[in-house]
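Hey everyone, long-time lurker, first post.

I ran two proteins through the pipeline my lab uses and got sequence/structure pairs for each. Pasting them in order. The first:
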Amino acid sequence: MSNMDISPLEFQKKEFSKSLRGYNPEEVDEFVDKLLESYENIYRENRDLKEKIQLLEEKIQNYRDMESTLKNTLVLAEKTAEEVRNAAERERETILKEASLQAKEILHRAKKQFEEINTQNEELRQQFHLYKIRFKNFLQAQLDYLDSVELDTFPYSDSQSDAVLEAATAEDEEARAFATDEDPEE
């Protein structure tokens, strides 16, 4: 304790020496008793206030620690959120690039298949056209052969000739009907 700190107990036990021309001891004792009571109240109040101040300072420190922890948590949460956003953006870009490449590949394959089918179709048309021309030529040659003199070695009678002519006319009509159903390109 410093020289100024006097406890109520020290204050109460303090005794003064008596002198001949001193103050009235009863008045001094009475005044000291009142002063002691007042001092004890102030001393207790001071002690209580110091305890409250210490408790409040501890609470303030706890709040400061919590505030610091919350700030750190907030900073960490913001950083984590930013990292998650960046990772999601990178993943989105990767997925879009892969999807674009796959779409281009699918389109390329489809175009190639289309061109192959188109080429095959054109080849089949040409082959069919060539076959049709050859078949017509073959049939024409056969018809020419049938009209040739070489086959007239067996002459018909008039009644046989009329029956053959009727049959041939009926077949010609069927052939014409069939020819109108042919390929519209011809």
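...and the second, right after it:
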Amino acid sequence: MNIFFVLSDLLNNSTLSNVVDFFSLDNVVFTFMGEGVSALEIMSTITGLLCVFLAVKGKVANFWVGYFYNILLFVMFLQKNMYSSMLLQPISLAINLFGHYRWTHPKKEEENAKKQLKITQYNNGQRAIVLGAVLIFMFLWGYVLSRIDVWAPSIFSRATLPFLDAFVVGMVLMAQYLSAQKKIDCWGAWLIANTSNITLCALAGLRLMTIVYAAYIVLAIGGLLMWRAQMKKEQNKVA
């Protein structure tokens, strides 16, 4: 039994119940590729695309949009029994808060011309360490997800694609942390994360989200090119 629908049954207040019904994946607005698309998915799509677009442009406003996006994804993944992706959202919210502060409160030697955090990059050794940590996380967290319905059957249903879900979460966390530090490497991590998310959402029946993640891939390529040009510009000014 899904926690979201248990909550809906427990609510006696009609207003609160209507809010829960609105954000239910059963609140279908139209059909796409044979699957119903809910109002929640539409809102998540618009908010997510806006968030990434602002990040590509290097706008601090991407963090404000990102906070709302985290909430929408938490509710959506909860209903799909994608527990790893669901639990990712509070962590993502914390990373967004950290990134918001880092971008707007850099140290003196980290400032660009706008007094914001300048773009930098990792070396190959640092990248290998971070990727290794993601793979270790995938196997450990994937195992937990694969057993969560056995350990707590009254709360959780069987997890959807636990190891793929865990890998996606690991990649997203890495990408978000790199984004928070304004590392250009974040766009490579986003490319891998979004490609994996297309598979995950397609198998979970979130067809519209597969189109969204495909758009994220295009935006990530654009972000890589724009950040690289900006990084070179900032380095030339220092030189």
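Reply from user beta_strand_b:
Welcome! Quick read of the second one: Residues 3-238 form one domain. Residues 44 and 72 are 6 Å apart (CA to CA).
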